[in-house]
Amino acid sequence: MPYESPVASDRSTALRRGVLFIVATSPIWLVPKSIPVFHPVAMLGILIGATLLFLWWDKRSPSELGLELSWRPLANLLGGLVGGTLLILVIAVLLHAILPFEWTWNTTFLWRLVATGLVFQLLLAGVEELLFRGYSFERLISSIGLWPAQLIVALLFAVYHLRNGYPWQVAFTGSVIGSLMFGLVFARTRSVLAATGFHAAANWAREVVLADPPTMRTWFGPVAGRNWTDAERQTTAIVFNGVALVACALLYWSIRRRNRSLASDAGAGTGRKERALAK
After folding, report:
1. Is 1 domain-assigned?
2. Rounded to an integer, what distance in angstroms lies between the CA atom of residue 27 and that of residue 195?
3. Which residues, including other chains, have CB under 8 Å from residue 122's CB and lie 6 or more apart?
4. Cβ contacts of residue 190 below 8 Å, gap of 6+?
5. What does the pLDDT look like over 156-174, one tens digit per residue?
6. Beta strand pairing status for 220-223 and 102-105?
7. Host domain of residue 55
């Protein structure tokens, strides 16, 4: 039997279990939302149970994914909510300056629907993050590295949106960029709840300040009084995707900076131990 180092064995196990999680949960994301097989609350419960089961199989703590019972998951969720909201506010400010529309307050706006809308977005984002940026994503990162894992998950996320009625152009641009962004939030925080909050807030805030035509959840937004032109829709997509890519770059810079700091601290700690032993 050929020798396999412990590190290689650990990576191989992580890869197998990450893929197994994707396969085991694939019925949830392969079935279009138009077919009401699973209610979001039921899906969330199933995925939390599956995630905890796989972590138990690994003999690892829920804290590996930021799911422990402490103040940290709540703080990460709130931080994600703030980050996702700020992302949409930046996009809204840029679009307000670029698009030739009147931006007005919506007279049919209802705060109650905004609150329930946030709860609904948290449920949906929780399901999607546990599916795509949870256990399987963390195991893929451990086995093949961050960017190969990002590519695999982003393609799965695009297929998921394609099966739920998104045009392929949107599924393989906006959805892919969104997946990379949410994946970097997870990689920076090691928290599924941080990614969930960011994802939910981005979807929620977009409806509150950008929806056209407005709904009763839209507080303030652009009113064209006509159909948008292709150029205006393309401009909006460019701004959305451009700001999201800038956010990705900032998140990746933050990850690299943290990793350099950790490596420097580890090196300094080793040096102190060596000097102590030499005395």
Report:
1. no
2. 22
3. 196, 197, 200
4. 64, 65, 66, 138
5. 999 988 888 888 888 889 9
6. antiparallel
7. 6-278
